[in-house]
Design brief:
single chain; 142 residues; alpha/beta; Cytidine Deaminase, domain 2; 7-stranded mixed β-barrel; globular; protease; metalloprotease
Length: 142
């Protein structure tokens, strides 16, 4: 692992909270920030039409509204996140094929019964390679 993805503590806590909402349909959203530092997560609706729990998709409107949100905040869309229920947080073939060039991907594994969902592992990837994840109290302005 030679690359690192960092999160503000609030953004990482928001990511974990959103991922815990997984209910037979994968959770999905955008990672917003600067460089490799995520300061905002933006949950999006999963419009997947395949077998429940087997994938995710976002609409063009979801992507555009996420981009517009980021630009208005002086930030950029860095990538996306989604959940895997009872499966390792490894990118599937479809995950790899659908990831826009240069985007990072964060995948959270969700385990436990629906009344006690736990995020048991979170992994990040950039250009198909694993990245370390760090969490900071706040984004450090440069």
């Amino acid at each position: 692992m030679n690359a690192t993805v960092s999160f503000t503590k609030n953004a990482y806590d928001d990511l974990l909270s959103d991922c815990r909402l997984h209910n037979r349909v994968e959770r999905v959203g955008l990672l917003i920030g600067q460089a490799s530092h995520v300061s905002v997560i933006l949950p999006r609706a999963n419009h997947w039409r395949g077998r429940m729990g087997d994938g995710f998709t976002m609409t063009r409107a979801d992507l555009k509204s996420g981009h517009d949100f980021a630009v208005a905040a002086g930030l950029v869309v860095l990538g996306r996140y989604h959940t895997h229920l009872h499966h390792p947080p490894l990118p599937s073939r479809l995950d790899r094929l659908s990831l826009p060039p240069g985007w990072m991907e964060v995948i959270a594994r969700i385990d436990a019964p629906p009344d006690r969902r736990n995020v048991t592992e979170v992994r990040a990837y950039r250009n198909g390679s694993p990245c370390a994840i760090t969490v900071r109290e706040e984004c450090i302005a440069s």
